[in-house]
Amino acid sequence: MSSVASAPAAPSAAPRATRRPSTLVAYSWELRKLISQKRTYLGLGLGVTLPVIFVIVQNVNTHHGGGDSIFAAQITQSGLATPVLMLLFESVFFLPLIASLVAGDIVAAEDNNGTLKTILTRSVDRGQLFAAKALAALTYAVIAVYLASIVAAVGGVASWGFNAIKTFSGSTVSASEGLLLVIAANACYLITLAAVVCIALLLSTATRNSIAGVGGAIGIVILMYIVAGIPGLEGIKPYLLTEQFENWHGLLRTPTDWAPVTHSLWVSALYAVPSLVAGYLIFLRRDVAGG
Amino acid sequence: MSDAPPPQAGDVEAQPVRARGLVKRYKEVLAVDHIDLNVQRGDVYGFLGPNGAGKTTTLRMALGLIVPTEGTVQLFDREPMRVGARALEGVAGFVEAPRFYPYMTGRRNLQLLAALDGGDASERIDEVLETVELAPRGKHKVGGYSHGMRQRLGIAAALLRRPRLLILDEPATGLDPAGMRDMRTLIRRLADEGITVLLSSHQLPEVQELCDRVAIVDKGRVVYEGALADLRRQGGAGYRLRSTDDARALEIVKAQGGVQDASGDEHGISFQAEETTVGELSLALAHAGVGILALTPELATLEDLFFRLTEPDGTPGSHDNGSLSDGRPAAETNTILASR
Q1: Are B69 and B26 within 8 A, CB to CB?
Q2: Among A47, B163, B255, B321, which lies 20 to 30 A Cα-Cα from A263?
C-alpha cells in the first residue's frame, strides 16, 4: 500500500439495505470449497480404488483360467454384478469412512483455521451456514457412493457385458432393470450413511477437532459392530445403525422386500435427527474463538 | 431489550457500538468484567489495553462470535446474539489476524465473502483489491501471501460490505514501517469518508495519531473511556522551562504557589501548573532577573497515560500491586478517570 493516498476512492459509507444471501448460496460455496481441497479427492479416490483393483484382478484371473472363485460365476455373467458386490464390500467400513472424512472435518477445520469467524461476520446466519455445511457433507456422501458405483459398473460392463443379472432370490432380471436396482440399492444405502454423516457433523461441531469428528464417527460404527457380536445383546441388534447398512438387500429379492428399507428409515432417523438438531443448536450458540 | 423491530440498515441515528455491563467468564477466569463502551458516529475510537486485558474478547462479543456471560452489546441498536447476521449490516472488520482459505486465491476468497454478503458486494471486488493494492496478487493463492498481504486482504474483505462501522483488531501488527504508515493513511481516509472506526491496537503512537476517543481496559475492566484530549489534559498540563540561571529559576518555581512536581535536569526545569500560575511565574522570574529562554507546554503522551493507568507504578513492565505514580491507589485514580 505504498500509495494508498492516491488509490481509488474507498467505498462510500452511505448506508444501504442489502438483500441477504440464501442458504443455497452458502451451500454452493461450501461445494466450491470442497472442490478446491485435495482432501476431497483423496476420499473419492479411496472409494474408486477398490472397484478398479477388483475389476483388474478379476480380469487377470479370468484370462489365466482362475475364474473358480465364489464371485467368478456371478461376476462374469453380467457387469452389473460388480457394483452390487462393491457396495456389499464398501458399505461396511469404507464408505462410512469416506463420508466421515468430510462430515467430521467440515466445521472443525474451519474453526481451527479461523475461517469460521471470517464467514460468521458476513450476512448469513449461523443456522444458514450449518445447513449449508450439512447439505455439502451429504452431497459429498452421495457423490462418493455413486462415483464408486459408476466406476464399478463401467469396469464391470466393459469387462463382462451389459447383461441380465440374477437377484439374491435366484430369479433373473433384465440388464436395464438390473441397472435401476443398482441405482436404487445405492439410494437405500445412503439413508443409513446419512445418519453417519449427521453423527460426524455433530462431533465436528461439538469437539472442534477434525480427528475427533472423523475418528469418533468411525469409532461409533466399529463399536456398533462389536455390540452386534456380543452374545445376549441380540435384542438391540435391529436398532443398531450398522445393521441398516444391508437395508438394500431387500431390493434385490423377488418379490421386493421393502421391510428392511422402511425399518432402516426410522432407525437411521433415530440417529440422524437428534445428531443434526444437537449439532445445529451447538453451532448456533457456540463461542467461535479459534484460529 | 424491547421486542420492537430492529432499526433498518439506513438508521443513521443509531449508536454504532453500545456495550453495557459486558462480562465474559471462562470457568474461573474473568476475561471481561462489566465493560461499558460508547462508540459514537464518526468516532475513530481507540481500544487499548495490555495483552490479556480483554480487548479481543470484547470485540468478539461485539461481532457475535462469542456469547457474553452477562450484559449486552449492540451495533446500531441491534444485538448480534439476538438477531444474528442482521446485526452486522453496515458492520465489517476482523478480530485477531484476518483468516482466509489458503487453498483459494485472494480474489476467490473475496468472491466467496461477497457471495455471503449479498447485494452488490461481488461487483466491488476489483475496486477493493485496488484500494489495498493487491490487484496484481489477486490471482495467487492466499497460502503464499505474506502476513502484511493477509492484513490488507482483511481490509479489502471488510470494505466489500460498505461498512458504516469498521472494527479492526491490531490491523498494523506484523507490518513493516511503510506498511504501518500506509495502513494509518487508509484508516484515516476511511474515517474522513464518514466510516466509524473501532480500532484495537498496541501501537500507541498510531492510536494517538488516529483516534479522537479511546477506551483503555486493564484486567477486563475499562479504566478510562472518553476523549483522548481530555485524557491527556487529565494527565497533567506540564511545562518545561529553560532560563539564563536554572538553579535560581528552580528555587523561584518551587516557591510559586500552584506549581506541582517541579524538578530540574540538564534539559531545564519541568513542572505542572495551571495557565494563570504560569503567567504569574514568568513575571516572578523576570522580577528576579532570570531570563526565560524557553517556556513550553508539554502534554502527557498517550504512552505515559497508558502505563499510568495499566501499570501499578506507572512504568512499563511493572505488575506489582501498589499505587500509581501519583501515590493514589490504582482503583481510586481509575475511578476518577473513568468518571469524567
Answers
A1: no
A2: A47
Asked if residue B237 has pLDDT above 80, the reply is: no
Check CB contact of B161 with chain A, cutoff 8 Å: yes
Q: Judge contact between A137 and A197, C-beta under 8 A.
A: yes
User: Per CATH, which fold does B17-228 belong to?
Assistant: Rossmann fold (3.40.50)
B73 in contact with A, Cβ within 8 Å: no
**Mean pLDDT, each 10-residue run in order, chain A (291 residues):** 42 53 96 94 94 92 66 80 94 96 96 94 94 98 97 94 89 93 96 98 96 97 95 92 94 90 96 98 89 63
Q: Which of residues 1-20 of A touch B (CB under 8 A)?
A: 1-5, 7-20
Contacts of B247 (CB under 8 A, 6+ apart): B264
* B92–A4 C-beta distance less than 8 A: no
A125 interface with B at CB cutoff 8 Å: yes
Question: Which runs of E-coded beta strand occur in B201-286?
Answer: 213-218, 221-227, 237-243, 260-265, 268-272
Look up residue B232 and give its three cell numbers. 491527556
Question: Chain A: residue nearest B76 by CA?
Answer: A15
- How does DSSP classify residue B49? -
| Angle ∠(A194,A199,A200) on CA atoms, nearest 5 | 95
Q: Where are the domains of chain A?
A: 23-285
A240 vs A222: CA distance, rounded Å: 11
Rounded CA gap, B119 and A18, in Å?
5
B116 by Cβ neighbours in 10 Å (0-12 / 13-18 / 19+) ranks as buried
Q: Do B179 and A7 touch (CB under 8 A)?
A: no
pTM confidence score: 0.83
ipTM score of complex: 0.87
**Residues B129/B156, Cβ–Cβ less than 8 Å:** yes
* Closest A-chain CA to B95: A117
pLDDT at B288 over 90: yes
- The structural domains of chain B, with segments of one domain joined by +, span 17-228, 236-299
Instruction: Give the mean pLDDT of B160-172.
Output: 92
User: Given this model, what pLDDT does residue B312 score?
Assistant: 61
Give, in words, the CATH class of B236-299: alpha beta
Question: Within 13 A of B339's CA, how many CA atoms are on the CB side?
Answer: 6
B97 contacts in chain A (CB < 8 Å): 114
